[in-house]
């Protein structure tokens, strides 16, 4: 039983060590030292060269190191085997923390207090109730739902926008294209937690931003390609959008001369909103390896037709 590993954000030795703990009888090979390709049954990869996975004839599943699977799906020779998503409770919990942190930061007007501190101004600003802050989460999947539920528990007025109908206590649901603009119109804080697909690329553009209430905030924890960056800059500069927290960008690392770095209304974080460490990730991939071995159904599968 052989697992092939490639890439990821953290050193590959951490993945090898993590699998050594959770599945000691698993043989782990690290790309490009694949050995006999016929032996490899499972692959956990990031940014694999196109066509490379097709050279392993006995793959039982391919898993993506990242939660998003757009890079896998771009491979025109991707083998016809199940695709597994690297979702886990640590990722969901840490993403929910990030979203809560930045929503609270806007509720409690921290950007204004930070500016006041720079100017040595001692002044209390008006309060706003969480229940009056309408947060709109684009995507209620493994990450968006955890964030939505956490915010709802903290008293925020939460809605989620999805492709198919959802029913979750305390979370209003807007669905598909026809629900999109009504959803935006009630979002004082818009959080993007979508996968990147043909339908969601460039979705936060000038039209979408204009549909948000004046003074709204934007938090992007999906992918850089969801946001039309120049449209956000224009909306910030016009005052229609009050602030943005961005964890993902069209080009990463964010180039040194990018206007987001120094924009007074923008908070930049280096694609760190959720914890993708191997120690947590290996547990859920190992679960699927056990399932494959025992002939049980796999979990957390990609819907290829939907693109996520
Ligand atoms: N910033 C980071 O560090 C970081 C880390 C991990 C992941 N991410 C990003 O977060 C994304 C989401 O992850 P996840 O695990 O929560 O995904 P997921 O479980 O697949 O959920 C995706 C959600 O988006 C909705 N959706 C997809 N296409 C849509 C469309 N065209 N219109 C409306 N709703 C749509 C889905 O609706 P249905 O429920 O109706 O299917 C679902 O609720 C990943 O794909 C990745 O791009 C970012």
How would you describe what is shown here?
Helix 7 links the parallel strand 9 and strand 10. The protein is built from 9 helices and 12 strands. Helix 1 crosses helix 9 and helix 3 packs across helix 5. The protein is α/β, with parallel strands linked by helices. It binds NADP nicotinamide-adenine-dinucleotide phosphate. The site of NADP nicotinamide-adenine-dinucleotide phosphate (NAP) has 29 residues, from strand 7.
Helical content (DSSP H or I, runs of 4+): 25-40%
Tertiary shape: elongated
* Ions and ligands: NADP nicotinamide-adenine-dinucleotide phosphate
Q: Biggest sheet: strands side by side, in what order?
A: 8-7-6-9-10-11-12
Elements, N to C (H/E): EHEEEHEHHEHEEHEHEHEEH
Measured on Cα atoms, how large is the radius of gyration? 21 Å
Q: Tell me the span between the first and last alpha carbons.
A: 28 Å
Q: Structural class per helix/strand content?
A: alpha/beta
User: Low-confidence parts lasting 5 or more residues at pLDDT below 50?
Assistant: none
Specify the biggest β-sheet.
7 strands, parallel
Number of DSSP helices?
Answer: 9
Topology (SSEs and partners):
Blueprint: E1 2-6, H1 12-22, E2 27-30, E3 40-45, E4 61-64, H2 70-73, E5 83-84, H3 89-107, H4 110-118, E6 134-138, H5 144-153, E7 157-162, E8 171-175, H6 176-185, E9 189-192, H7 206-211, E10 216-220, H8 229-238, E11 241-246, E12 266-268, H9 278-294
Parallel strand pairs: 1-2, 1-3, 3-4, 4-5, 6-7, 6-9, 7-8, 9-10, 10-11, 11-12
Helix pairs in contact: 1-9, 3-5
Bound molecules: NADP nicotinamide-adenine-dinucleotide phosphate (NAP).
Residues 67-68, 87, 139-144, 161-164, 193-197, 199-200, 221-223, 247-248, 271, 273-274, 308 line the site of NADP nicotinamide-adenine-dinucleotide phosphate.
């Amino acid at each position: 039983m052989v697992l092939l590993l490639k890439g990821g954000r953290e050193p590959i030795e951490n993945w090898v060590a993590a699998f050594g703990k959770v599945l000691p009888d698993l043989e782990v090979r690290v790309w490009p030292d694949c050995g006999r390709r016929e032996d490899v049954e499972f692959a956990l990869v990031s940014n694999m060269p196109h066509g490379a996975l097709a050279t392993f004839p006995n793959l039982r599943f391919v898993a993506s190191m990242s939660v998003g699977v757009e890079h896998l799906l771009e491979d025109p020779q991707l083998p016809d085997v199940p695709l597994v998503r690297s979702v886990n409770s640590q990722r969901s919990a840490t993403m929910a923390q990030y979203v809560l942190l930045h929503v609270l930061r806007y509720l409690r007007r921290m950007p204004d207090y930070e500016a006041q501190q720079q100017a040595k101004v001692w002044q209390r600003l008006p309060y706003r109730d969480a229940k009056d802050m309408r947060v709109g989460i684009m995507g209620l999947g493994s990450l968006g739902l955890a964030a939505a539920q956490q915010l709802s528990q903290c008293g925020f007025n939460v809605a989620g926008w999805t492709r198919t109908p959802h029913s979750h206590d305390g979370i209003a649901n807007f669905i598909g294209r026809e629900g999109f603009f009504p959803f935006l119109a009630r979002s004082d804080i818009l959080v993007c937690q979508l996968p990147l697909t043909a339908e969601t690329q460039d979705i936060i553009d000038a039209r979408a931003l204009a549909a948000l209430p004046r003074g709204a905030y934007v938090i992007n924890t999906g992918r850089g390609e969801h946001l039309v960056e120049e449209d956000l800059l224009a909306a910030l500069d016009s005052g229609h959008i009050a602030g943005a927290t961005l964890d993902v960008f069209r080009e990463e690392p964010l180039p040194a001369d990018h206007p987001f770095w120094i924009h007074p209304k923008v908070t930049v974080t280096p694609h760190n909103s959720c914890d993708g460490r191997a120690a947590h990730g290996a547990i859920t991939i190992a679960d699927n390896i056990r399932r494959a071995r025992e002939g049980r159904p796999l979990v957390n599968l990609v819907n290829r037709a939907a693109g996520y």
